[in-house]
Structure to design on (615 residues):
């Protein structure tokens, strides 16, 4: 409290522009210094978190997956990519290095906002083998059933995708390429199914092309 | 300075933010975070604590350097200081608690434009000694955190039937979903303000 | 093209900045007593949002890849200075327009809706045109909310309202009901 009495605000009538720039510059300098220090400390941690989140999601949609690598669309079909920032698909391998399938990210506008998912695709049996919602702002209690309703998510454990995935009403499923929509969340469930169809048709040819030339991709 | 008067002034500066000048319920400042992220108790608490961090350090710094900062550029300087601490808290949350960081999203960055923080710098810290400014900042942020937490608690109990993610009512409870959606934020704060008005009116009459 | 329509409608109605993201609440609750003031404030908002979209695109493109930690500070300072600059230009070139919109400009430059726009469109990874359409939609949405609110408040002035409810409490409850009505727009543009 000692400072309370002896510091009186210095009421200089018109400080020169040098003083204005100097004080702003000082504030900017120290703020930059602090930010860089915190950035250097946090950025490896943040990167680690993101990597862990991606890894957990891939392991969830590709059962028995032990390692993965990123493939992107190149001029001559699928190519291995070194950087991790590019948009692509992840090839997953089990612990013996045998190829299991691809984990493919996809997005589509749902009821409220964009829904982002990651799904596992086994090109050999042409089935979807896993499904995980990464980001969604769908209405809690209704639209969020696309990742909370177990019957719905269960359908994606083994789902035939040829010729296309079809949406049917609850209790009307008769073929292996059909998914029952959720009552009260029809739009959200249809958005998910549309997204899977669109994403598959986008990647199908390049995946097939790649598998033809490299019969058994191994690590 | 250890007189009775200074102690009561200390506690006065601290307590006014919690009740008499509560930033949310009385001054109606910082509404955006108060409504946007309070769909659960834990999010409300996290936002309150993040704001506390920013307000406390900004107030301390502004008060320390209050005689060096020229009047003409004070607002810009305050904003630089505040934005620095907000960026720091944003990066720290992303590093330590990624789940909460993802839930709060861009609203952490929006602490910068919370009128409460800039308002305290302009109205208090730039004119008062460090000690009082720290107490004022702490009191205000505790008041803000309590407000956010209580909105979050009410919305989570009504809208999800749980508190801090612990289920309260079991299977038979039909959650009042609208409460965790945006309209619920407006309605809950509206009714809380009503209650506050009622209590304050009774006291004054 | 379809994407642009979706971005526009989504920002305008479905994810309305004021009624579903709670951005720009201070003017929404403070400057909504009169319809014409509210409308002009809304127009000023659209104007600043367009400047914001241009600034944040430029920053994201050329500056921030090198220093991501400066995002927040540079957004605020660049947007505020750009608006001030335009304000001065407007005062010189079109005093009439300045009288209509200019008085609101200082009020909204550090508004959460403006910074929110810059942050959201960065997070969504929008390019130049997408960002511009998003800004138009968001600004339109804010204007719509302001005008609706002001219209309702003009009506309530003639009513006999208990003293306890008057003021912010009543406005918040009105906003809650408006927000509920806007929820009906969800699902408007999906399959």
């Amino acid at each position: 409290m000692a400072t309370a009495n002896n510091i009186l605000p210095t009421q200089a009538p018109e400080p020169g522009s040098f003083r204005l720039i100097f004080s702003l510059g000082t504030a900017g300098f120290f703020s930059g210094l602090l930010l860089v220090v915190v950035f250097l400390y946090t950025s490896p941690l943040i990167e680690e978190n993101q990597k862990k989140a991606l890894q957990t999601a891939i392991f969830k949609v590709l059962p028995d997956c032990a390692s993965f690598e990123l493939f992107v669309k190149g001029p001559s079909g699928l190519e291995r990519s070194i950087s991790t920032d590019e948009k692509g698909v992840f090839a997953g391998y089990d612990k013996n290095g045998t190829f299991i399938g691809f984990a493919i990210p996809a997005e589509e506008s749902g009821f409220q906002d964009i829904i982002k998912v990651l799904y596992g695709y086994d090109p050999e049996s042409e089935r979807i083998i896993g499904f995980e919602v990464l980001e969604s702002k769908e209405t809690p209690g209704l639209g969020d059933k696309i990742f909370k309703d177990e019957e719905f998510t269960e359908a994606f454990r083994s789902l035939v995708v040829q010729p296309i995935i079809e949406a049917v009403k609850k209790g009307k499923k008769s073929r292996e390429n059909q998914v029952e929509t959720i009552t009260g969340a029809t739009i959200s469930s249809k958005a998910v199914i549309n997204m899977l169809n669109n994403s598959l048709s986008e990647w199908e040819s390049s995946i097939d092309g790649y598998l033809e030339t490299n019969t058994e991709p191994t690590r | 300075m250890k007189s009775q008067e200074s102690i009561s002034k200390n506690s006065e500066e601290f307590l006014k933010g919690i009740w008499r000048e509560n930033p949310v319920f009385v001054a109606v400042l910082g509404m955006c975070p108060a409504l946007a992220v309070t769909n659960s108790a834990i999010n409300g608490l996290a936002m309150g604590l993040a704001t506390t961090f920013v307000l406390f350090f900004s107030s301390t710094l502004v008060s320390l350097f209050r005689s060096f900062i020229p009047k003409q550029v004070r607002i810009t300087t305050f904003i630089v200081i505040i934005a620095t601490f907000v960026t720091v808290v944003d990066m720290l949350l992303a590093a330590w608690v990624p789940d909460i960081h993802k839930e709060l999203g861009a609203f952490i960055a929006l602490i910068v434009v919370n009128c409460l923080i800039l308002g305290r710098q302009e109205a208090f810290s730039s004119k008062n000694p460090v000690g009082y400014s720290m107490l004022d900042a702490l009191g205000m942020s505790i008041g803000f955190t309590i407000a956010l937490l209580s909105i979050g608690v009410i919305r989570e109990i009504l809208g999800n039937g749980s508190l801090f993610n612990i289920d309260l009512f079991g299977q038979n409870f039909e959650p009042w979903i609208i409460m965790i959606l945006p309209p619920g934020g407006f309605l809950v704060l509206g009714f809380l303000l009503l209650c506050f008005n009622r209590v304050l009116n009774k006291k004054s009459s | 093209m379809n994407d642009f329509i979706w971005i526009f409608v989504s920002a305008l109605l479905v994810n309305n900045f004021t009624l579903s993201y709670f951005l720009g609440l201070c003017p929404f609750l403070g400057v909504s007593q009169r319809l014409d003031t509210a409308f002009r404030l809304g127009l000023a908002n659209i104007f600043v949002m367009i400047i914001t979209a241009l600034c944040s695109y430029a920053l994201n493109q050329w500056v921030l890849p090198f220093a991501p930690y400066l995002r927040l500070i540079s957004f605020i300072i660049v947007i505020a200075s750009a608006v001030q600059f335009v304000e001065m230009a407007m005062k010189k070139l079109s005093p009439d327009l300045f009288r209509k919109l200019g008085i609101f400009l200082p009020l909204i430059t550090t508004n959460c809706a403006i910074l929110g726009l810059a942050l959201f469109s960065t997070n969504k990874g929008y390019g130049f045109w997408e960002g511009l359409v998003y800004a138009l939609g968001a600004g339109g949405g804010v204007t719509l909310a302001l005008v609706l609110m002001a219209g309702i408040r003009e009506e309530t002035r003639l009513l006999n309202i208990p003293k306890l409810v008057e003021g912010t409490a009543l406005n918040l409850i009105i906003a809650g009901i408006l927000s509920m009505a806007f929820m009906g727009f969800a699902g408007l543009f999906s399959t």
Residues 16-152 of chain B form one domain. The helical segments of chain B are 4-15, 31-36, 41-64, 74-96, 98-104, 115-125, 130-160, 182-204. The mean pLDDT of chain B is 85. Chain B touches chain C at residues 28, 31-32, 35-36, 76, 79-80, 83-84, 86-87, 90-91, 105-106, 109-110, 112-115, 118, 178, 181-187, 189-191, 193-194, 197-198, 201 (CB under 8 Å).
